[in-house]
Amino acid sequence: MAIQFLGKTLKNPMVLASGILGNSKDILERIHENGCGLVTMKSIGPEPRDGHKNPTVIDLGHGMINAVGLPSPGYLNMENEWRDLEKRDFPLIASVYGGSVKEYQMVAEFVSSKNPDFIEINISCPNSEKHGMIFGINPQSSHDVVSAVKKVINVPLIVKLTPQAPDIGDIARTCEDAGADAICAINTVGPGMVIDIEARTPVLAFKKGGLSGPMIKPVAVRCVFDIYKAVDIPIIGLGGITTGEDAIEIMMAGASLVGIGSAVRYRGIDIFQTVADEMEAWLSDHHCSHEDITGAAHKEG
Ligand SMILES: Cc1cc2nc3c(=O)[nH]c(=O)nc-3n(C[C@H](O)[C@H](O)[C@H](O)COP(=O)(O)O)c2cc1C
Question: Which residues line ligand 1 (CB under 6 A)?
């Protein structure tokens, strides 16, 4: 089930979401070998950042809440990772964040020189004070950051959006106008909070965090549906995808590729091949192809 995406051939439509398995070539390669068509690195920032104090991730059973806080060695301190990754033989998205348009531009320009296949800008992180989401909830700042990054990179640009945008279709259209080649949606939902009632305190050290996993899937499906209506560029749909039927659902909303993050915890690193096989089985039972189902929920009658 090979698929074309922005000029590259992927072995299947499955994508590893950013931030789930880090940036080491060995792990990312293993994920690709285990059935993932396209892997995304953890978001890389302008300077070294520790992230938030533990606990940072709690499994709620029906999904997770996290406030890892964008830990990053900083883009200039990843020589070992880049040296290994430049010799890879699998398709790679490098994810970038910043605290200002200039920082996004600076990091993205440097990362572009390391030859990833795609660059994704994370304008959607809900649990960092000044990074990310603030850009993705406002059309003007989304436009500014996308057009600035587009000027300095030489690979296709993916923009990762937040469901917190008042009109995510409008933001996606603005990003497309500013030069985005694809949209990725969604980042985590929130922030939310979980309180330990015995300890009478929030369970996360940062108190608030982003929600992910099965409980956010209906939000992700709605966002992808709205984005598909607004743009002509392809969409990577993610948020709670755990099974082949989930993948079919988000494709029917309009996704061309399907991302998986939290569900790696629930079904292990083979999940990419498992979900790809489950999708194939569904398509074969229903006598249809990927092309038939992408955006199928928009068709009248
Ligand atoms: C622990 C954790 C860390 C994450 N780190 C990043 C990150 O660095 N950059 C980013 O764009 N998204 C990050 N995300 C968001 C995921 O890539 C994904 O958009 C979100 O979790 C929804 O997908 P899911 O429900 O399949 O997990 C992170 C999510 C989790 C759970």
Answer: 17-19, 42-43, 57, 64, 66, 68, 70, 95, 122, 160, 187-188, 212-213, 216, 238-241, 260-263
Q: Token pair for residue 142?
A: 């989304």
Find the 43 Cα to ligand 1 centroid distance in Å: 9
Domain range spanning residue 284? 3-298
Do residues 139 and 177 make contact, with C-beta atoms less than 8 angstroms apart?
Answer: no
Q: How many domains does the chain have?
A: 1
| pLDDT of amino acid 133 | 62
Q: How far is Cα 8 from Cα 266, in angstroms, rounded to an integer? A: 30
Check 36, 125, 175, 184 and give the catalytic one.
Answer: 125
Neighbours of 136 (CB within 10 A): 28
Over range 31-48, report the average pLDDT. 95
Q: Output the domain CATH number for residue 250.
A: 3.20.20.70
Predicted confidence (pLDDT) per residue in 153-164, tens digit:
999 999 999 999
DSSP sequence for 139-177? HHHHHHHHHHHHHH-SS-EEEEE-TTSTTHHHHHHHHHH
Ligand 1 geometric centre to CA of 192 (Å): 15
Which pLDDT tens digit goes with each residue over 190-218? Answer: 899 999 999 999 999 999 999 999 999 99
